[in-house]
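pinned: reference chain
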Amino acid sequence: MAKKEEKKDLLENAEIIQEKIEGIEHWAESNPKIIIGVVAVIVLIVGGYFGWNYYIDSQEAEAQKEMFQAVRYFEADSLNLAFNGDGNNLGFKQIIEEFGRTPAGNLASYYAGVIHLKQGKFPLAIYYLEDYKANDLLVQPRAYCLIGDAYMEQKDFENASKWYNKASGYKPTKEFTPTYLLKAGLAYEKLNQKEKAIEAYQKIIEKFWESSEVQSAKKYKARLETNS
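pinned: its structure tokens
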């Protein structure tokens, strides 16, 4: 009996499905323009996605090629040529303008920020370094730290401490995080926020006790506690 009922249900379900399919087919036959429009939209979306990716890849290859000479000028400390170009080769400024959406264009923003920091043009350094966005372990926190340096140079210790903290909290590493914490502590000292400075130094002592910064952290912490 149960098998007969099950067979009956299957037949009924199959009939219902068949009716729905026929209904869809009838609707499709009655509305061909809508079907064509939907298919066209899907084709455009898929084609646009792959077309955009191809465009970005080709732009990235071009940007890397153009960046080669700018990086060489940067390494040779020819900062104006690195940023502005030499008339034949693009500088980081033009690479950002023409290839800003590519990874190479993004990296050019970092180089541009470092250049302006070295030249003492601190607002421009901040502008370019803030524009750099990545997800790596080294360059992104370094960019945050350099923004902090630019604010320190302008004696804006509040913003300096904020960016040093951002650097130290971003994917911590034993190689670089202690440096960022040490700078944060010094910025807090400039703000006369001794407790926050001591806390930054204590983090180095507890979490990065093998780092080269630990001796400085101990010394600065002891000085603050003695003067409290």
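why pinned: The chain has eleven helices and no strands. Residues 135-228 form a domain with the Serine Threonine Protein Phosphatase 5, Tetratricopeptide repeat fold (CATH 1.25.40.10).
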